[in-house]
Amino acid sequence: MKRFLIPLAVFLVLVVFLAVGLKRDPREVPSPLVGKPAPEFRLDTLATPGKQFSPADMRGQVWLLNVWASWCVSCRAEHPLLVAFAKQGGLPIVGLNYKELRGDGEIDMKKVPAGDEAGLVRQRAGAWLARHGDPYALSVLDMDGRVGIDYGVYGVPETYLIDKKGIIRFKQIGPITPEALEQKILPLARQLAGEAS
Amino acid sequence: MKRALACLLTAAVLGTAGASLAADATPMAEDPAVEARLVVISEELRCLVCQNESLAASRAELADDLRREVRKLIRDGKSDPEIRDYLVARYGDFVLYRPPVKPTTWLLWFGPFVLLVGALVGLIAYLRRRSASLAPTALTAADKAAAKALLADPGTDNPPKHNA
After folding, report:
1. Chain A touched by B22 (CB under 8 Å)
2. Residue A102 sits in which domain range?
3. ipTM for the predicted complex
4. What backbone phi and psi angles, to 5 degrees, belong to A93?
5. Strands (DSSP E) along chain A, which ranges?
6. From A75, A194, B22, B133, which residue has the greatest number of CB atoms within 10 Å?
7. Which domain holds residue B130?
8. How many angstroms from the chain centroid is the CA of residue A139?
């Protein structure tokens, strides 16, 4: 009897490891940016050409930076939750419109004159928000995805919770689920709201 | 000097002839030295979208963007470790196909050797025990007598069953 115990124990350990491995989502790569200052940028807003936004403008507030695009299917899945959340007025959400044209595989960028890109982006992104609701305090245009690289964006949507000092405290990869909002983002945001800026 | 002149001449000729084609030239041809370094660096980097492909091989759009970024860093004169650090700062150690040796990766790096040593120790212990249990034991006088009797008188032995 005793001689079977060791192989049995090894087998059980293996089963536990494999079971945990099955549950983990390989697409969720822990971000090295959590705990680090949100990378600085200065981008044009969607609403007003020429008006710019920078994360420094949000100093002293706890806020969400949500990466989205009108071609992103998961963003649409996530969107009603954001709209409902914005209505409650919990946290200001800033949208980072990520590669609105260049990220859309169906658009041949060679056919888009360089000067027309911003206008087309505003038109498409604006129409999408008009149709599905606009939860954003404002959205900025990251047309070439440069800011996305600084934020380590690799799969839209992604959402960053940023504290009063401008430090990224949490990153949601993929759409925000009601569970993630209730169990992770909101409790952390409440705690951060109590911190000094 | 002659070579430089020849280059200039060729460039002038090509410049006029190829002006219309220039727009279609891919960035691949821009600078062979940069491309060579790009390939060396990006083969060791993982594409985050299609996680089992290297940044050099991936056709994902993000990989395109990141290759462009790495090209820019190469032209800015950044060293290979600096470029890797740039990407690790944004995407984490996960982008490296060769993860750094640090406490959280000790198991990854040294685990196989620990397993190997453990298996060797177990094997040696097992072989020792086995050879001890198989050591020849001396025959008693009675055993010897019995063996002798059996060998000396085969006729009285029970015949093997298959002969019956």
Report:
1. no
2. 33-193
3. 0.79
4. -110, 125
5. 43-44, 52-53, 63-68, 93-98, 138-142, 158-162, 168-173
6. A75
7. 101-134
8. 13
pLDDT digits 0-9 by tens, A64-106: 999 999 999 999 999 999 999 999 887 999 999 999 988 888 8
Task: Name the token pair of A85.
Answer: 């959340």
d(CA B57, CA A33): 26
Cα A24–chain centre separation: 20
Which residues in chain A touch residue B69, judged by CB atoms under 8 angstroms apart?
A: 149
Neighbour count for residue B40 (Cβ, 10 Å): 11
Neighbours of B68 (CB within 10 A): 16
Q: What is the CATH number of the domain that holds B72?
A: 1.10.8.640
Q: Compute the count of residue pairs across chains A and B with CB atoms less than 8 Å apart.
A: 40
Domain assignment present for residue B8? The answer is: no
Quote the distance between the C-alpha of residue B142 and its chain's center: 63
What pTM, to 2 d.p., does this model score?
Answer: 0.74
Name chain B contacts of A168, Cβ cutoff 8 Å. none
Separation CA A29–CA A82 (nearest Å): 23
